[in-house]
Design goal:
Structural class: mainly alpha
Strand order of the largest sheet: 1-2
Order of helices and strands: HEEHHHHHHH
Distance between the termini: 30 Å
Number of helices: 8
Strand content: under 5%
Largest sheet: 2 strands, antiparallel
Oligomer: single chain
Number of strands: 2
């Protein structure tokens, strides 16, 4: 095992031990409950490699498609859904329910809510007009990278790395 993996893996495992020992139990949006600590940070020297964890299952396909989605500056989940990535579905789905006054009929995380979300996702996948109207997550991450008040931050960073690689 390389030192990069050990470095990242050890930090992650130490954080988990810290959470178990010092964490505070709190409620979360799913009703499952969470044990958490505040103010912790993991730091990695990326010049030594990317610290992908091996003790935790990683959805590599999802990571790749989500990153490509961010790079494009997209905020509509249709691209992700069509590629089997469903991690952002809840946000536009909940907005859809609220806008159509269906949020009381389909309480969050109920079986009926989950079934309705599956229908919603299929419609996003197969109906372009529906996806254009209801599939947007809003101006976050990639949108901000590519258009922050008219400024393309990602292009600027790439140009700076090429122009000043040692900075």
């Amino acid at each position: 095992m390389s030192t990069t993996k050990n470095q990242g893996e050890n930090q992650y495992l130490n954080l988990l031990k810290d959470i178990l020992k010092n964490g505070v139990i709190s409620k979360d949006r799913t009703g499952t409950g969470t044990k958490k600590v505040f103010g912790r940070m993991l730091k990695f020297d990326l010049s030594r490699g990317f610290p992908l964890l091996t003790t935790k299952k990683m959805f590599i396909k999802g990571i790749i498609y989500e990153l490509l989605w961010f790079i494009k500056g997209d905020s509509n989940i249709r691209y992700l859904v069509k590629n089997g990535v469903n991690i952002w579905n809840e946000w536009p789905f909940q907005k859809y329910l609220e806008a159509n006054k269906l949020d009381k009929k389909y309480p969050k995380y109920s079986d009926a809510w989950r079934a309705k979300m599956q229908e919603f996702v299929e419609k996003i996948k197969n109906d372009k007009k529906f996806a254009e109207k209801w599939g947007d997550c809003g101006p976050f991450y990639g949108v901000q990278w590519r258009n922050f008040n008219g400024f393309d931050q990602l292009s600027w960073v790439i140009k700076e790395i090429k122009r000043n690689p040692d900075l």
